[in-house]
Amino acid sequence: MIYSFFHKFRFSHFLGRNLLTESFLPFKFLYGLFKKINYSKTITKNGVSFTVLLKNGIGTMNFIDDYEKWFDEIIPKVLSSPNSVFIDIGANVGQTLLKTLPYYPEVKYYAIEPNKSCVDYLESLCKVNNFKRVKIINYALSDVVGETELLMRYQDDLLATTTPSFRKYTKYSSKVVVPTTTGDHLIAKENLKEISLIKIDVEGGEYKVLAGLVDSIRIYQPYIICEILPLASKAEDVKNFRILSAQKIFEILSDLDYSVYNIANKRTIQQVEELSLSLESCNYLFIPKSIDHYSVKPTNKKHSNTMEAMLQPI
Q: What is the pLDDT of residue 173?
């Protein structure tokens, strides 16, 4: 598996961005062969069996066992209710879905993904596993209803983005026009009455996604997991974009009365007032202050605690 090879041997982020693209001819040749592979495997984790797929070369990330293991600590704490609703924004090939539905099949799961190749794969993944309470929505979430361009290096690209100003040195090989909607519009359309958890992984579009969810977040007060990549960049315009976006994110969360925690490692989260500069610490947990008993007093800068202590079932 091409991606897992790079993941295992920790190739530099720069090489990964520029070699794992169909604009790089050796990769294009290998990937053309790889796309012909179809394979399925039933695995058992924590006493639960489910099937992972490789379909037309798509789905390699689901064969990586240690992918975001910290997430395994969070899910049982925030999805404890039988009526839990999980909105996965940027579902890709179901990495988070497979951490959730095999163990919590009663959760109502909304997988939102703009990439049609990934959507087709997700539908096959849910069918082979007989996941009943999942709805796959082929949209990009933003702050407006309309259309945008999705940039990709290959068909199930983890770095696919609708925000071209987020990266400067990544070689995207293709783009496709995709529909956009706001989270508030989508939630109203689905007539949701509860939201337990929102996950956002949209490669630079986090601010727009949050801006389009403000009304729903204010009403339902969900936990929010969000990947926000480091602000640092060799390109000054990219760095300025990331800093401005981060400032807007903190303004939204402040207005919504949320605490911001950086997921520092597998078991520890730390309250922060600014974003991390490390690529290894780019995942955040946003908690409504109304249920955050560990939020620090204004005079302190940060506070850390174990995930188990922080996340009591609600």
A: 75
The region that residue 262 occupies, defined by phi over 0 for left and psi between -120 and 50 for alpha, beta otherwise, is beta
Number of alpha carbons in the 13 Å side-chain half-sphere of residue 203 = 22
**What are the DSSP calls for the chain, one per residue?**
-HHHHHHHTT--HHHHHHHSSTTSHHHHHHHHHHTT--EEEEEEETTEEEEEEEBTTB-GGGG-TTTTTTHHHHHHHHS-STT-EEEEES-TTTTTHHHHTTT-TTSEEEEE---HHHHHHHHHHHHHHT--SEEEE--EEESSSEEEEEEESSTT-TT-BS-GGG-SS----EEEEEEEEEHHHHHHHHT-S---EEEE--TT-HHHHHHTTHHHHHHH--EEEEE---S--SSHHHHHHHHHHHHHHHHHHHHTTEEEEEE-SSSEEEE-SS--S-GGG-EEEEEETTT-TTPPPTT-S-EEEEHHHH----
pLDDT for 53-85, tens place per residue?
Answer: 999 888 888 888 777 888 888 888 899 888 899
Give 191-241 pLDDT, tens digit per residue: 999 999 999 999 888 999 999 999 999 999 999 999 887 666 667 777 788
Identify the residue whose tokens are 């947990």. Answer: 285
What pTM value is reported for the model? Answer: 0.84
173 or 129: which carries more pLDDT confidence? Answer: 129
Task: Give percent of the chain with pLDDT exceeding 70.
Answer: 75
Write the CATH number of the domain with boundaries 56-291. 3.40.50.150
